[in-house]
């Protein structure tokens, strides 16, 4: 069975002949801006494994970039989708009420750790849509025009969310951009100013928010502060809980809503159902949480959850859309949550973390090019540098390792402001044998590329 297979390359090279032919057709038919560096054309997937059109087997540590926490083709998800499809594919929620939407909203209201006893949820189709809707809701509730985001942030590719996103390679040549979005410094502790202690660092990054109030937008004009509990595209950088507590305090003092962008961190990835549960445990729960990616096992769905008084401040007609809360996607999401809770995939994320962190930390001792290893649960990044003293980024090495690993049956991906981080986002249903096989391929690729680059 593919679900239990190990990585194996049976063609002389990758891509094999069938994959190479499809990739060539892709180049003729699809805009080059939608890039793909992997020599892989999928035929089928199961668990954490992919079989390509030539019969090669790859272990996937990217999971559709964090979408497949539950894995490829989970049979119970497939059955739920088939059952709903037999009834109807679509019914716009503004026209007909379907129970799946209601039940899924009730389910999320019961488990999403936002402030408040009475909660409400509505659905969109993507992470960017969820983030954009969260901002709209915050503006409606507070009556304020501006938001604060952070260095290293990624929130999407719509006009608003790519403005919120820090890395402007995602927005090159597409301005002018919306006004009212201001940026503070995210606590990238590995790259603190030289000599700064951890305690001083928290104060330093907190002060950057006050500088926004002084230099860009008065606090009473700020509707929300938007934070990723662990930055994804920014380099898999966790937000320190002490800093989150400071941000929560600022929000409470200034009447600002705290939005947690859990598009990538949600659904058991960080060792809890939601990363914001860590915030909740230290008294810093957010006001609004956005989720997407692994919510529906790969079907387009996202969610926005907040307490009732926030949600009910929104005027009719300003939120929602044709496909939002599609019945088939809702059916998949309900089954995803059921499986995750039943099979304790939050605990599995911790087990995976223990295995990979042991290897990654040993590699850090053996390879001077590894500057930092960090993460939460099974969401881990390794930052590569040319020199540990200067911390000069090493994106060339990362590109070489990603390419070499793919040739040998492991799919990994880069991240980070400088493109010098390799991220771990394997499906949480990955077997230990597959995990170890991937680690072996990764280490061999690293050893080879360190000598060659």
Descriptive notes:
- The structure is a single chain.
- The relative contact order is 0.16.
- Helix 6 (159-164) links the parallel strand 5 and strand 6.
- The protein is of the alpha/beta class and 453 residues long.
- It is globular and about 60 Å long.
- The strands form 4 sheets. Strands 4-12-11-10-7-5-6 form a 7-stranded mixed sheet, sandwiched between helices.
- The protein has 14 helices and 18 strands.
- Helix 3 runs antiparallel to helix 11.
- The mean pLDDT is 97.
Instruction: Please list the strands of the largest sheet in the order they lie side by side.
Output: 4-12-11-10-7-5-6
Tell the overall outline: globular
Question: Helix share of residues?
Answer: 25-40%
What structural category arises from helix and sheet content?
A: alpha/beta
| Proportion of residues in β-strands | 15-25%
> Uncertain segments of ≥5 residues (pLDDT<50)?
none
Largest sheet: 7 strands, mixed
